[in-house]
Amino acid sequence: MTQPQQWTGVGRTETGHVRASNQDALALLNDCGIWIVADGMGGHPAGDLAAQTAVAVAAQRARERTAWFREHPNAAAEFVADLVTSANRRIHDLILARPSLKGMGTTFVALAITSSPTPVAHIAHLGDSRAYLYRTGQLKQLTRDHTLVEKFVQRGLIDAATALTHPERHILTKGLGMGVDMEPELTSTPVMPHDLIVLCSDGLTKMLEDAAIASILSRANGDPHRTCHDLIEQALGRGGEDNVTVIVVACMPPALMAGRFQVPSATGEGWRRCA
């Protein structure tokens, strides 16, 4: 008898070897089919507060609307966009209440998967936290970085290789907290049972180019636990210059995930095993 399968995420976040604190945050809402990564803007006030607030608000909103989401799978894009606007609204409310927080902001990428009639991944994002799809040995970036250098590349002013080392490569053009009416970029793509979907902060992509990420995924044999662990360890091993956060989502039989499900620890460091 064939076991039923469900999309399940495994996540981990680490401070790295250079930063004094971790300004990344993540949410694994496997029961809702929702996964989120946020990366507080470095060099701005309260980046950690911005990321934690964005994830907490979006997670609460997702749980409140999960029943609606399941009844209206054709409105999935609206659903993930609402997570972003809800989080952005809360961040601006905090800034209004505490002017010292002016300039606070965070990147944000949220993934929701609808399962019928065929699985589709729906992504809303702002900033340079990314979503990738890995399928049959090929890695595809599903999101476009909202950065100044990405604009330069799109306009033909510099090439992709130059963008990797450009001194302004981490200047964001969009992010939560950067405007009251900030609207996310929305992406939808069909997914297949053997696909892996990776969400990550730029602490991963600073340390690993896409070819290195693809190589790690190819060796993990579709195991989201091994994939997440190996991506984080490689980023740390190559210097860990920034906070690094990874979520890997895979379609797995529930029995294979039982006792292995990983979530961030209470301190935000590493992961712990659920009972």
List the topology elements.
Layout: E1 6-14, E2 24-29, E3 34-39, H1 47-71, H2 76-97, E4 108-114, E5 120-126, E6 130-135, E7 138-141, H3 148-154, H4 160-163, E8 185-190, E9 196-200, H5 202-205, H6 210-219, H7 224-237, E10 244-252, H8 254-257, E11 262-264, E12 271-273
Antiparallel strand pairs: 1-10, 2-3, 3-4, 4-5, 5-8, 6-7, 6-9, 9-10, 11-12
Helix pairs in contact: 1-2
Q: Could you describe the 3D structure shown?
A:
By secondary structure, the protein is an alpha+beta fold. The chain is built from eight helices and twelve strands. α1 (47-71) packs antiparallel against α2 (76-97). The longest helix has 25 residues, at 47-71. The two termini are 27 Å apart.
